[in-house]
Amino acid sequence: MEQTRNKHVLRLAQAAMIAALYIVLTFIANLLGIASGAVQIRFSEALTILPYFTVSAVPGLTVGCLLANILTGCALPDIIFGTLATLLGAVFTRLLRKYKWLAPVPPILANALIIPPVLYFAYGVKPIWFSLVTVTAGEIISCGVLGMLLLFALQKYASVLFKD
Predict the structure, then answer these.
(1) Which Pfam families is this protein grouped with (predicted)?
(2) Treating both helix axes as pointing N-terminal to C-terminal, what angle do 76-95 and 57-71 enclose, rounded to 10 degrees?
(3) Distance of CA 163 to the CA centre of its chain
(4) How far apart are CA 106 and CA 94, in angstroms?
(5) Which of 26, 130, 136, 147 could form a disulfide with 143 if both were Cys (CB 3.0 to 4.6 A apart)?
(6) Mean pLDDT of all residues in 84-91
(7) pTM value?
(8) Which residues have C-beta within 8 Å of that of residue 106, sequence separation ≥ 6?
């Protein structure tokens, strides 16, 4: 019983830390002016590989994205569907955790499919096909390149950092 409670507390703490880190990294990208525009590079999106290591990352990333989108003044459709894209990416990354090289694919696909219509309807960004190209490029950089660098850096310490 005590061990189960400790495991839940650990997962809650991990999720909270991941959410906080996501928010901070989003603010840094915003300050640098690379979190919005044609090709968006959010450092926080590199964290979307964390479900490969721990289930705690799924709620952590979701809450982090939700709060980051609210705090950075995103439009309501962006807050809702951007968070949904992050949740879907995190869930499918977790489900595919046996395949390390696929870790960044779910968040890249989720954002590539969900965010271009959001940019069109919430912000009037046209044409949608161009947003598809630029959002996908940004996600490949953030999740594919930076995320995989993070995955390989954390892999050595995974048994200490992520006790699932």
Answers:
(1) QueT
(2) 160
(3) 21
(4) 9
(5) 147
(6) 98
(7) 0.93
(8) 48, 88, 89, 90, 91, 92, 93, 96
pLDDT average, residue stretch 122-126: 91
CA distance 144 to 43: 11
The identity of residue 160, as a single letter, is: V
Peptide bond into 77 cis (omega under 30): no
- The length of the chain, given as a count of residues: 164
- CB contact at 8 A, 88 and 110: yes
* Contact in structure between 36 and 135 (CB atoms under 8 Å): no
- Cβ atoms of 49 and 150 within 8 Å: the answer is yes
**Per residue in 101-117, pLDDT tens?**
999 999 999 999 999 99
Q: Read off the tokens for 50.
A: 């964390």
The DSSP code sequence of 116-164 is: HHHHHHHH----HHHHHHHHHHHHIIIIIIIIHHHHHHHHTTHHHH---
Distance CA 26, CA 43 (A): 6
Tokens at residue 141, please?
């950089």
pLDDT category of residue 37 using cuts at 50, 70 and 90: low
Please give the Cα distance from 2 to 23 (Å, whole number).
32
What is the C-alpha to C-alpha distance for residues 95 and 130, in angstroms, rounded to an integer?
Answer: 30
